[in-house]
UniProtKB/TrEMBL annotation:
Domain Tyr recombinase: 160-345
Classification lineage: Bacteria, Bacillati, Actinomycetota, Actinomycetes, Geodermatophilales
Composition bias type Basic and acidic residues, residue spans: 1-22
Gene3D superfamilies found in the cross-reference section: 1.10.150.130, Intergrase catalytic core
Highest taxon, organism lineage: Bacteria
Family statement: Belongs to the 'phage' integrase family.
Entry protein name: Site-specific integrase
Family annotation (InterPro entries): CB (IPR044068), DNA_brk_join_enz (IPR011010), Integrase-like_cat_sf (IPR013762), Integrase_catalytic (IPR002104), Integrase_recombinase_N (IPR010998), Integrase_SAM-like_N (IPR004107), Tyrosine_recombinase_XerCD (IPR050090)
Organism of origin: Blastococcus jejuensis
Domain Core-binding (CB): 58-139
Keyword list, A-Z: DNA integration, DNA recombination, DNA-binding
Region (Disordered): 1-24, 363-404
Amino acid sequence: MASIARRPDGTYRPRYRDEHGKEHARHFKRKVDAQRWLDEVTAAVQTGTYVDPKRARTTVGELAPVWLAGKINLKPTSRARYADVLKTHVLPRWGNVALIRVTHGDVQAWLSELSDRGLAGASVRKAQGVLSGILGLAVRDRRLAVNPALGVALPPMQEKRRRYLTAEQLEALADAAGPGRVAVLVLGYCGLRWSELAALRVRHFDLLRRRVLVEEAVTEVDGSRLVWGTPKTHGRRSVPLPRFLVDELARTVVTRPADELAFPSPQGAVLRNRNARSAWFDAAAQAIGESGLTPHELRHTAASLAIKAGANVKAVQRMLGHASAAMTLDRYADLFDDDLDDVADRLDTLRAASRGRVADFLRTETPSEGSPEPPTEVNPQVRGVETRGIEPLTPALQRRCSAN
């Protein structure tokens, strides 16, 4: 229901009821303006783009917890990162701002300010993603007509160059790691994430088939709490074991009960990343001249060694647990430089072959020394009369030539 009423003071009061039966009204000096506003609102209601003005006055800070609670597909570590971005970057700037007051220009200025402060490109993008997620929920809830955080200019990622160890360096690192020797070899040759390694139990190793089953992960949240769950891609996978690693595991790991952790801490608990680094990993990295090396870089090393050994992209994808082969190619494109060299070599071969065919086509053969001279051509005669021209003589023309 919608109507326009003229008030005693001469102004016009259009009013309408929304889908919940709540009445809304405004005042205009001219009836044409009142009618235009009422038509716009009616069209928005009918097309499903109607926005409740009062709901649009909700602040970003009030809607943020609702948005975060709705991200039920997030892993615990991802949820903790989103919560940290909210607390550190989004809420200090937008927490008390009404949704309707957030403009595209203000969002762009905020992102530029974060970049000017020296925040990494990836962190700026995460901040934009969190704010855009909250405003996107506002659009779906019909609190906003459009998302003002979309379409903003973002800084480049500035991804730093990955470090890959050679097989010799990996062996040296394992030898220097002391109690972490086998863990280093599993990380460096199987490409497991630390959360997957820490969750492995003895029963996950099948030495007869030379496989390790990755079906659990344990992550440290907020620096203290351990959370058990599925691997990063929510799927289990079977990872191949090199023969030499089967022998190592047979001597050190599978001799214990099946349900025990394969790589526990000295106290028998879950091996935490930071504890392992302070106990033996960082010292081992320094001993081989690779200070600052992280356990996750051994995952990159595993990809590098597998590709260098001739493994195809699909096999590497399955080993690492990536969602797709395209993701593996994008992430490790720098490891396929040899393929580019092979392309260049094939192009060289193709060009050389094509030039050879052209040369054969254009080459004129000359008689070799000692070969007999070709017979001298004689002018053909037709019935004793020299043939003239290039066409054969007709009988009439032959008689005329003979008469001459």
